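dumping this here so i dont lose it
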């Protein structure tokens, strides 16, 4: 599998450098643990400018005495290479949503939401109850491990915290990434407000899109 990925990356780089083909570019959002996102960031940097890192976030959500930790990253570039990223993410249990320029042209007011799955579902329900017309176009959940630690506010020796970690990690956090379309432009601010009030990370495509 590694050899196949290297072959595809080399092929994509040759096509990009030759300038003889019109390379389709696409966006993707990847969410998962820090190791997964570190690896995706490295691949983007190693792509010889064929894939750009638009931004990356390291998130710590406070939930009582627990800290739930995850990372997500948004990439833009050569669709062939980004397809390879998708395969790697799926194999390693991350969440992955890809957005093509064609979809961007077909759908209105695209937004990506990233948060634990239970929070995403509650928020979508709240948006629906507010009578805001939205559609979920794509969704993906992590099946890999998301880090959970005792908060620094919990005053225990480090060796005890380490010993307890397997117990509070038994309840695995499922992370969701969804792509939604908001029918009416005047509702965008309402969706953002509902999402952020529930500690959901919102990516509005009006702030992201590039023309190159």
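and the seq i came up w/
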């Amino acid at each position: 599998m590694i050899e196949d990925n290297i072959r595809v990356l080399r092929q994509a780089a040759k096509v990009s450098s030759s300038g003889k083909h019109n390379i389709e570019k696409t966006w993707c959002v990847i969410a998962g643990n820090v190791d997964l996102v570190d690896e995706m960031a490295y691949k983007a940097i190693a792509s010889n400018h064929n894939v750009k890192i638009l931004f990356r976030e390291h998130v710590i959500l406070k939930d009582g005495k627990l800290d739930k930790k995850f990372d997500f990253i948004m990439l833009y570039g050569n669709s062939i290479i980004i397809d390879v990223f998708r395969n790697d993410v799926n194999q390693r249990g991350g969440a992955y949503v890809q957005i093509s320029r064609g979809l961007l042209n077909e759908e209105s007011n695209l937004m990506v939401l990233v948060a634990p799955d239970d929070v995403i579902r509650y928020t979508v329900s709240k948006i629906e109850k507010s009578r805001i017309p939205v559609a979920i176009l794509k969704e993906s959940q992590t099946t890999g491990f998301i880090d959970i630690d005792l908060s620094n506010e919990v005053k225990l020796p480090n060796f005890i915290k380490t010993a307890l970690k397997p117990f509070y990690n038994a309840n695995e956090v499922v992370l969701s990434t969804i792509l939604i379309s908001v029918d009416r432009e005047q509702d965008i601010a309402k969706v953002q407000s509902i999402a952020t009030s529930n500690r959901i990370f919102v990516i509005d495509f009006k702030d992201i899109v590039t023309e190159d």
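The two ends are 31 Å apart (CA to CA).
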